Amino acid sequence: MATFGNFAKRKVPDRTPGAESGVDDADAGSLEAAALPDDLIEVGVIVDAYGVKGWVKVQPHAQEGQGGDALVRARGWWLAPRIAAPGQPVGGAGASAAGAQGALRGYAVSQAKPHSGSVVAHLNGFADRDQALAAKGSAVHVRRADFAKLDRDEFYWVDLIGLAVVNGEGDRLGQVVGLIDNGAHSVMRVAPSEDARASDERLIPFVDAYVRSVDFDARQVVVDWGLDY
């Protein structure tokens, strides 16, 4: 079974179900007035300005070929600024970890391209370096529909999170709450409940030897793994 793209950290909460993206090639700026799409996924963070003409530099949560391609493919990005903790500047060191997210605001993407392990892009409405720097620290979201189509037996992490995990005997082991990339393959973090402690988790390698099938219709992963492992 092939590995899969470790693209997104988490889904964005509180979406409006059934909304369309509203992105148009002629859109000249913010998509803020359009209804938020219901399939937005966080895919990276703006870490700096790039040049002096309003371009931004994004550190993606996954690289090219592992899901990071969606940043380049997408015609619209939705930015959520980080709100710093008291006494901490927005976009400053540690602000991303300490601060909460602000409201999402959409922008049409005029250009985007890979650049030395990052992605650089120009968003309509960004005219100079100062505007690009003001967006530093913002989380970048794109539509799940903008992810590249995967080959058979390849999966994006974000699609696996939340699936029930059962073994061949029908025993429920929990649900996928996260994944880990150990370099050789991915490992599912399976917890009996959403509020489980880390010590309660099972770590199941996402490889043929242990994973029998992934069934999105049934919302479950079937594994060769015992309750007493």
UniProtKB/TrEMBL annotation:
Keywords: Chaperone, Cytoplasm, Ribosome biogenesis, rRNA processing
Biological processes per GO annotation: ribosomal small subunit biogenesis; rRNA processing
Localisation per UniProt entry: Cytoplasm
Broad class of where this protein is predominantly found: cytoplasm
Domain Ribosome maturation factor RimM PRC barrel: 157-225
Origin: domain of life: Bacteria
Pfam families documented for this protein: PRC_RimM, RimM
Domain (RimM N-terminal): residue spans on this chain: 43-145
The keyword Transit peptide appears for this protein: no
GO CC list: cytoplasm; ribosome
InterPro entries tied to this protein: PRC_barrel-like_sf, PRC_RimM, RimM, RimM_N, RimM_N_sf, Transl_B-barrel_sf
SUPFAM superfamilies: PRC-barrel domain, Translation proteins
Presence of the UniProt keyword rRNA processing in the record: yes
GO molecular function: ribosome binding
Summary of the function given for this chain in its UniProt record: An accessory protein needed during the final step in the assembly of 30S ribosomal subunit, possibly for assembly of the head region. Essential for efficient processing of 16S rRNA. May be needed both before and after RbfA during the maturation of 16S rRNA. It has affinity for free ribosomal 30S subunits but not for 70S ribosomes.
PANTHER family noted in UniProt: RIBOSOME MATURATION FACTOR RIMM
Subunit relationships: Binds ribosomal protein uS19.
Family assignment from sequence similarity: Belongs to the RimM family.
Domain notes: The PRC barrel domain binds ribosomal protein uS19.
Protein name according to UniProt: Ribosome maturation factor RimM
Organism: Pararobbsia silviterrae
